[in-house]
Structure formats: C-alpha cells, structure tokens
Amino acid sequence: MAHLDPIAEFREDHRVVRDGILDITAALKGKDLVKAREILGTLNDLTGPHFRYEEEYLYPMMKEYLGEYVDQLISEHNNVIETAKVCSELLAKDELTDEESADAQKAAMAMLIHVSNCDGLAILSERIDQKELDALGDRFAEAREKGIGLLEWADTIRKSA
Ligand SMILES: [Fe+2]
Fold it and tell me: Is 161 inside any structural domain?
C-alpha cells in the first residue's frame, strides 16, 4: 500500500485548522452557535489524530533538530486542549453573553499561534530520509484510523501516557 505523505498531510491539516479557527471566530461574532459548535466538532475529530501522531512520533523525532523547543510545542498542546475544553463548554450553552462570545473568540484566535509554530516543523521534516518519512506516514495513517477526537484522547490515552 502506498505510504501517506506525512509532510503534505501535516500541512493540509494545519490549513483546515487555520480556516476552522477563523470560521469559528466569525461564527461567534455573528452569534451563530450552531455553526461554531459544528466547526469545533470537526476540529476535535481532526486534531485528535494529528496531536497524537505529533506527540507519539513526530515531536520525539524532531528533538534531534530542536531539542527543548519540542517541550514548548507540547506545552502549547496543553493550552490548546484546555482552550478547546473551555470553548466546548461555552458552546454547549443555548446563548452566549457578549463577554463570553468575546472570550471565546479570543481563545480561538490564540490557538492560531500553535498552528503557525507547528507548521514550521515542515521545513525541518524535509531533511528526514525517505524511509523514515514512509514510517511517519504510516504512523500518521494509523492515528487517523484509530480516529479518537482531541478531548477524548486528552482525557484517556494522553493522560495515562
Ligand atoms: Fe501540528
């Protein structure tokens, strides 16, 4: 079976997340909670396998180039997970006050910083040899097949790792 291209897929995920965050922010601004909830659900499904692949395989491999910066990326993941939890609790409400909506917009926008930092790894990943890239592609595909959403993964597998 063909190997998944881990760099192309990694970057494509980041594009979807970038757009999702911007769309959630716009939906919150327009007080469209149904839409915001729907996008958050899509992002939760996508980022679960993405984060899992990164923390289990990609980030450890990147330590060779980046040393302790990798720990910063993991701590950014902690923040993203916390923010996602807060957003999902807020969005479970029937209505948001102006303040809650502004807070949620701010929180969503803060997640963009991690998207930008994480995508920087693509330029370094290009130095990984093809055999290792194929192996990474297989691990990425595996994480997607398992398909565990971000919040569920964070509360179960990640917690006990
Ligand atoms: Fe990422």
Answer: no
* Short-list 115, 111, 116, 86, CA closest to 101: 86
Query: How many angstroms does the Cα of residue 59 sit away from the middle of ligand 1?
Result: 10
pTM given for the model: 0.95
Between the CA of 114 and the centroid of ligand 1 the distance, in Å, is: 8
Locus of tokens 């910063």: 72
Give the pLDDT means over successive 10-residue stretches in the chain (161 positions): 92 98 96 96 98 97 93 96 94 93 91 94 93 96 98 96 80
Question: Does residue 88 lie within any of the structural domains?
Answer: yes
Q: Is residue 160 part of a domain?
A: no
Domain assignment present for residue 62? The answer is: yes
Identify how many contiguous H helices and E strands the chain contains and give both numbers: 8, 0
User: Rounded distance, CA 19 to CA 9, Å?
Assistant: 15
What is the domain count for the chain?
1
Q: What is the CATH number of the domain that holds 79?
A: 1.20.120
The tens digit of pLDDT for each residue in 8-32 reads 999 999 999 999 999 999 999 999 9
Structural domain span for residue 24: 6-153
Residue 118 alpha carbon to ligand 1 centre in Å: 5
What is the CA(100)–ligand 1 centre distance, in A? 27
CA 55 – ligand 1 centroid, Å: 9
